[in-house]
Amino acid sequence: MNTPIQNPVLRGFEPDPVILRVGADFYIATSTFEWYPGVRIHHSRDLVNWRPLGGILDSPRLLDLTGVPDSGGIWAPGLSYADGLFHLVFTVVDTYTEGWKDLPNYVTTAGSIEGPWSDPVPLHGRGFDVSLFHDEDGRSWLLNMRFDWRPGRESFAGIEIQEYDRTSRKLLDEPRTISAGTAAGVAEGPHLYRRDGWYYLVHAEGGTGYEHGAAVARSRNLFGPYEPDPTGPLLTSRHDPSLELQKAGHCSLVETPAGEWYTAHIVARPYTERGRCVLGRETALQPVAWSEDGWPRIAGAVPATSVPAPSLPPAPVPQEPVIDDFASLGPQWSTLRRPAGPDWAAPAPGRLRIHGGQSPVGRRTPSMVARRVTAPSCSFETELVFEPRSPDHLAGLTAYYNTRNWHYLFLTADDDSSPVLRTMSCEAGTLTAHEPEVLLDPGRPVVLHAELAGPHLNLSYDVGDGRHLLVGGLDATVLSDEHADEFHDGQLRVLGFTGAMLGLWVQDLDRAGVHADFTYATYREDTK
Fold first, then answer.
1. CA dist list (Å): 443 to 216, 386, 460, 504
2. Is residue 314 classed exposed, middle or buried when 0-12, 13-18 and 19+ CB atoms within 10 A define those classes?
3. Contact call for residues 64 and 36 (beta carbons, < 8 A)
4. CA dist 421 to 18, 159, 442, 474, 522, Å?
5. Surface-to-core class of residue 211, CB atoms within 10 Å of its CB (0-12 exposed, 13-18 middle, 19+ buried)
6. What's the burial of 100, exposed, middle or buried (CB within 10 Å: 0-12/13-18/19+)?
């Protein structure tokens, strides 16, 4: 018997999965929002072991995230395969507040999942969560949710479909609405499948929080009408707060070569019942069985933490090294709002040199290299070599959610240019400086250490005489979707769609050309 699938299979900030099989290879693509490279890809041959391949949209030619809001950028991509090409459709959310959304959608293709990818072609801006369905007759169709900005209207205005010509890479005719969703509302994330003469429309419902779920409807006709499954949701955790995996929904389906079906979907792991989810929304897998009357079903319509693996040969993948000496920036690393490059982030064996960027609220040229938090208890460490000349020069280690929520252990300079180690937190945009601070010898390397212990964060340092706790017991739950959501006077101001990151951060506020060197980084999960 194969080793069971342990959920979540992609841990930490890995939401909105779309799963695809091409031959013996399985791929999962996930949302990346304001982080580069855009659209993360993982690969597997057994659905148990997954290897990160990095992101598809890895250059300004493919993706411009300059100035996008927190939790803007890439939402819910669609990945498919036809004509010997991978097809990626994606939304770049430029704005989403005060009742408006700017939602340009694009398509790019490649002969290999690792590229090169073609220049993105604009599609439309009517909605988000785009996907492509390639029908048996050779025609292709673009699906998305329709967004309605008009006051007094339902903003989630149903699921629409429009023909897409793969040769010209253009949309044809006019879009048609094929489903208004269910009573749970907020129909989004559509995927279409064909089986035994039926078209099956799978979509998310109920929003992205604890009411989240997935529904399925079917029709003999591509354009409907679509009949919802009479038994209710395909998957949800909304009725059982005791489940370990919450916020289950946003499903996409895949069939193995042996005819076994699975769904990839969102889950979240709160630290308390219906509490905050520091790890963000993660990706899990569930087996799908087809009923005698032709409906896809998940056992109990709830997510399980351990499920049977398919009848495929085991395909282990290499484990990520604990210590990274920065010979290159591996697929575990992401950068904030701009791609890594020699102009600001230059890896070399034994050193990652980061040139200082904008302030913590800057959305054009921030200088952060970060990785996802994948376990409630973990640690992150780096050695920093930095020579700040003024209080406008900062470099260090951060536990980060977005521009308004983070903790920062950093080296800077006093007014007399003496180097000093400090800590600072930002919660919903409010800054707090913590005591104590530590004067350091100029030019001396310092090891910075962050330890996450569930809801608590401890920040320590070492200058060669052992580790010293600088600040302990910081609130790690501010690094969560639930804390990040902000509404003012009934209007949405900030969304929380990502997850906690641990990163290396450098600011050069007076643009003096300063840089910091990080000689290594370690990430360890506490498995106790």
1. 61, 7, 19, 18
2. exposed
3. no
4. 43, 53, 11, 17, 20
5. middle
6. exposed
How many angstroms separate the first and last alpha carbons of the chain? 27
Encoding tokens for residue 211? 């009411």
In contact, 486 and 428? CB cutoff 8 Å:
yes
d(CA 56, CA 31): 11
Mean pLDDT of 312-321: 95
Give residue-wise pLDDT tens across range 423-452: 999 999 999 999 999 999 999 999 999 999
Domains of the chain (ranges; CATH) run 5-307 (2.115.10.20), 323-525 (2.60.120.200)
Q: What is the per-residue pLDDT for 527? A: 62
The residue type of 492 is L
For the stretch 357-395, pLDDT in tens is 999 999 999 999 999 999 999 999 999 999 999 999 999
Cis peptide bond upstream of 349, omega within 30: no
C-beta atoms surrounding 389 within 10 Å: 13
Comparing CA positions, the residue from 114, 118, 103, 174 lying closest to residue 142 is: 174
* DSSP secondary structure code for residue 482 in this structure: H
Q: Mean per-residue pLDDT for 417-422?
A: 97
Grouping H, G, I as helix, E, B as strand and the rest as coil, residue 483 is helix
**pTM confidence score:** 0.97
Q: How many helices (H) and strands (E) does the chain have?
A: 1, 41
Give the active site residues. 16, 188
pLDDT in tens, 118-135: 999 999 999 999 999 999
- The tokens describing 472, both together, are 């302990």
Are 53 and 44 within 8 A, CB to CB? no
In order of 27, 34, 157, 169, 170, the CA distances from 122 in angstroms are 24, 19, 22, 9, 9
Please give the structure tokens belonging to residue 482: 């639930």
pLDDT higher than 80, residue 153: yes
Question: What DSSP string describes 320-379?
Answer: PPSEE--SS--TTEEEESS---TTTEEEETTEEEEE-B--TT-SSS--EEEEE--SSEEE
